[in-house]
Amino acid sequence: MSSDAIGSATKPLNSFTHVEAAGWGRGLSTLLRITRMNLRHPWQVAFAIGSTLVAVILQLLIPKLLGQAVDQTQTAIRGGVTGAAAEQALWISALLLLAVSALRGLVTMMQNYFAEAVGHHVAYELRLACYEKIQRLSFSFHDHVHSGDLITIGLLDLEGVRMYFSTALVRALLLTMLIGIGAYMLISTDPVLGLVALSFVPFVAWRSSVTQLRLRATWLDLQERVSVLSRVMEENLGGIRVVRAFAAQAYEMLKFDRASKSALDLAHDRVDIYVPNTSAMTLSFFFAMGLVLWIGGNKIIAGEISVGTLATFLTFMTILQMPVRQIGLMVNAFARASTCGSRLFGLLDQDITIRDAPDARPLEISEGTLRFDNVSFAYPSTETRPIVKNINFEARRGETIAIVGPPGSGKSTMAHLIPRFYDVIEGAITLDGQDIRKVTLATLRKAVAVVQQDAFLFTTTIENNIAYGDPWAKEQRIERASESAQLHNYILGLPAGYETVVGERGVSLSGGQRQRLTIARTMMLRPSVVVFDDSTAAIDAATEQRIRAAMRRFAKERVTIIIAHRLSSLMHADQILFVDNGEIVERGTHEELLAKRGRYKALYDLQMRSE
C-alpha cells in the first residue's frame, strides 16, 4: 500500500522527537484520518462492534439474573418449598447464570479478536507505507534526520496508532452503553439507591482521566529518553571497534548509564503518579459500596426493596468498577493516537523532492554522452553558499574523467548529482541530450552506477552482496566481476567460498576487501555511466593497478568518472578536472596539467615526495 494513498496532505516535518501539543482541530483531523483507515476493513469492524453490543447486553443481564436468583431463593424459603423443587430452581438459576457468563466471555473474546485484527491490519499497511516512504525520500531528508528517530516512529508511534481502534473506539462504545444503559436500569429501579451506586463513577472517571493524561505527558518524555537511549546503543554497536581500540568502554558505559538512569527516574515518577491515584479510586469505590449496603439494608428492612434488588445493585457496581477505571485508558488512547498519528503522518506526508516529473520518459541511451552544462548546486541547509558552481564538461562513451581537489571542494557532490541523489539548482546535466530531471528515476539509476567511498555491505553471503543489483545473475558472471575486482582468489580461500556470510556492514572484511566487493557489485551491472567516488582509497597501490587494468575493457563501453585523492589512481584519465571551492580551476590531461605548473603540479610533487 502506497504512502500517498494513506495521506494526501503535504506538511513539513520539523522534528520527529519533539511534538508540540496539537490543537483540537489538528488532533481531531488526525483521529478522523486514523478512523477512516480502520473503516477500510469493514467486516472486521462490523464483527468487533456487533460483538461489543452483544457483550454489553449479556454483561447487564448478569446482575439482573443474580438478583432474580436471590429473590427466587428467598421466596422458596419463605414459602416452605424445600427438597427437589428448591434444588431444581437453584440449578436452573445457576446454569442460566453460567450460560450467560460463558456466552459473554465468548463474545468478549470475539470482540477483542476482531478489534485487534483491525489494528494489526492498519499497522501492517502503515509499516509498509513508512518503509516505502523512507526508501523514496531524498538524500537531503536523510542528511538531517537520525535513523534512531525513524525507528522510533516505525515502532512506538505506529503502535500508538495500532491500538487506537481497540483501546479507544471500541472501549468508548462499550463504556457508553454499559454506563448509560446500566445507569438507566438502576435509577429506574430505585432513584436514590441508583444515584448512590453510581456516585463513585464521576470521581473515578475524573481521577482516571487526570492520571492517564499525566502519565501520557510523561510517556512522551519517556519515549524521547528511550529514543536517546536507542541512539546511544546504536552508535556504540556501530562503532564497537573504535570503542575497543581507544579503550573507551568506561566512557561509553557512563554515557549509557546516564541515558538509562534518566529513563529510570522518569519511570519512578510515573509510579508515583499511578499508585496514589489508583488507591484513591479504589477507596471511592468501596466507600460507595458501603453506602449502598447501608442505605439498601435499611430499605430492605423497611420493605421498600428486596434482597435480590440489593444484590443486583452490588453486582452491577462490581462489574462497573473496572470499565469505569478504563475511562482514563480510553482518554489516554485518544491522546496517544492523536500525538503518535501526528508524528507518523508527518513522516508519511513528507514531500518527496527527488521524484519523476509528470511528463518523465524512460532514458534512452544511444551515444552515451554525459554533459554538465553550467551546473550549480547548494544543499538546503547552505543555500546561500553554493557547493558546486558553474561546472562545465563533457564525457563520451569510452572516456574517463578524473576529478581531484582538496577535501570539501565539491567532488562527491558532483558525483551525487549525476544519478539525481540531489537536483541541481542552476544549469543542467544531460545524457545524450536528455535532461536527467525529465527522465524516470528508475531508468536513470539503471544507467548510472556510483561506487561509494563508504563501502556498505549487507549481512548476507558474499555472493548475494555482489549480485545485489541483479539477484538472478549466473555464478559465472558473479565470479568474473569478482576476478576483475581482484577478489576471486581471496573468496576461494574462505571455508564457505562465495557462501561466506559477512558480518554487519561487512565488519568481518578489511576496508580494502569491502571496497573491492562494492566494485565487483558495480561491475556486475551494465551502466552507461559509472562513478568511482574515492572507492579505492583503502586498496593498496599494486592491487589498484591490477583492478584498473581489468577495468579498461569494462570502461570501453561507458563513461567513467573517477574521484580520488591519490593521483596515481587517475593519471591515465582522458581529462582531469581540478576542483576547488566548487569550481573547476584547472583541466587537461596528466601531462598537460604538469606542464601548466599549477595546483595539480604542486599536488603531484607533494605526493611524489611523500612516496
UniProtKB/TrEMBL annotation:
Protein location: Cell membrane
Record-annotated ABC transmembrane type-1 domain positions: 46-336
Keywords linked to the UniProt accession: ATP-binding, Cell membrane, Membrane, Nucleotide-binding, Sugar transport, Transmembrane, Transmembrane helix, Transport
Signal peptide, first to last residue: none
Every ABC transporter domain range: 370-606
GO cellular component: plasma membrane
GO molecular function: ABC-type oligopeptide transporter activity; ATP binding; ATP hydrolysis activity
Recorded topology in the membrane: Multi-pass membrane protein
Chief site of localization: membrane
Transmembrane segments: 43-62, 89-107, 168-187, 274-295, 301-320
Family: Belongs to the ABC transporter superfamily.
UniProt-recorded name of the protein: Multidrug ABC transporter
